[in-house]
């Protein structure tokens, strides 16, 4: 009886060892693979671009990727509003802020550039949820600066990025100790790989908690600036995204809930020769071209050609 028990235990141990070995081999087999065909298409498309460009693309289900200068640091411009969003939700999770919390707009907060709150009447009432919506949907600068303050400032947000293992994703503006780097990158900085990762973590429910990631995802779905990458996907397909623009740098990060599975990409540029603010800006035109290539590569059964622009 004792020998049978020992043999049974040995057999069970062997099965466990084989199962562990199989799982390890499966995990190794699931390692990221470079999508060489897509990379060739991307490299051809960006050749001749008059500026510096970085790109990271990943199909989350197929675990295939393309990286071109993906770990190079670029200015975020308004894409920095995504880390600010995370900072605000960390305060909500800590019961220091509430989405329904009311605030009074002070006309002294008026700030140029994109957004609507600069046109609010002095002493107008608003709430935190509206401010978040304005920041993300209309890339509102007034609410973004205000929300950065409410999140605890740039240093607090940067510490959160470090915890998410995004060491190059930083808020520079109005952040003590980062004045010199602000002169180089402006409001914020990131890399194509890191910003893609931040979007992926939100999608996977890994930023703060699944509940808060879910809410952030919902805010990121509504975009007024939809004439770059978003114009290259069928309108019925769900996306989350954020654009960023300053004179010499244009960027965009997008996660697409596509039929074949989610894919994410981030396209960042800097030192751009074309600093125009027109639809035909070189970097913005190239971004649309790249988004078109990415969609039709991953979704050949749902190939899409955008309609002419409505003016």
Automatic annotation (TrEMBL):
<dbReference type="InterPro" id="IPR000871">
    <property type="entry name" value="Beta-lactam_class-A"/>
</dbReference>
<feature type="domain" description="Beta-lactamase class A catalytic">
    <location>
        <begin position="54"/>
        <end position="269"/>
    </location>
</feature>
<protein>
    <recommendedName>
        <fullName>beta-lactamase</fullName>
        <ecNumber>3.5.2.6</ecNumber>
    </recommendedName>
</protein>
<dbReference type="InterPro" id="IPR045155">
    <property type="entry name" value="Beta-lactam_cat"/>
</dbReference>
<dbReference type="Pfam" id="PF13354">
    <property type="entry name" value="Beta-lactamase2"/>
</dbReference>
<dbReference type="InterPro" id="IPR012338">
    <property type="entry name" value="Beta-lactam/transpept-like"/>
</dbReference>
<comment type="similarity">
    <text>Belongs to the class-A beta-lactamase family.</text>
</comment>
